[in-house]
């Protein structure tokens, strides 16, 4: 496993699953293997589909609590803890990079990690020994999120792993289907092709360009974090690979690394 930090961290978009992800032996192994191949980050910055707040908000920076933002699951999922250190210095850097007279930054010191952040991190960095900071997603507009990612890109040279957490297809009606529905297959295949081609324009216009986009994403919150990763990637969009693909509960779990 890598023990040092390279000069530039990659940036990633991952499909985070629901709390029962931790019971899936394949997906947990995929996430652990992916983390083992990454340079060890000095800190992790997470943008999750499950925290929308405008203007952009910075979460807890000292003691980082949990947000068990789901319902209807067995009690054991509500007992999960991920006591990662806070990242106050990273929060200061985020403020410096994103705050302007026209774009204020808020502080939510009691807002902890939601399941879009901690569920994958429990499998990628189970020792919870890397400082973690979660910030909100202030918009669903692809262009604005790309710009947000571009502004955060300097953090990659400071050892920060930028994690954009969503789900490559996200329509919970799929959970009621006996097999993977065609719209999930078609959107996932299209996404794989345009990522391989580094066709950022097509991704930005996915609602019009992708097949079955309205079914794959009735609301675009779980695809939107990808644009933060794209923006932070810069020219590294041309150096992407897909460490995780396939389906879970009929939803595409495609995840991508840039750089």
TrEMBL record:
Keywords: Dioxygenase, Metal-binding, Oxidoreductase, Zinc. Residues 9-239 form the Extradiol ring-cleavage dioxygenase class III enzyme subunit B domain. Its cofactor is Zn(2+). GO terms for molecular function: ferrous iron binding; oxidoreductase activity, acting on single donors with incorporation of molecular oxygen, incorporation of two atoms of oxygen; zinc ion binding. InterPro entries: Extradiol_dOase_DODA, Xdiol_dOase_suB. It holds the Pfam family LigB. The keyword Zinc applies. Belongs to the DODA-type extradiol aromatic ring-opening dioxygenase family. PANTHER family: 4,5-DOPA DIOXYGENASE EXTRADIOL-LIKE PROTEIN (PTHR30096:SF0). This is Extradiol ring-cleavage dioxygenase. It comes from Saccharopolyspora rectivirgula.
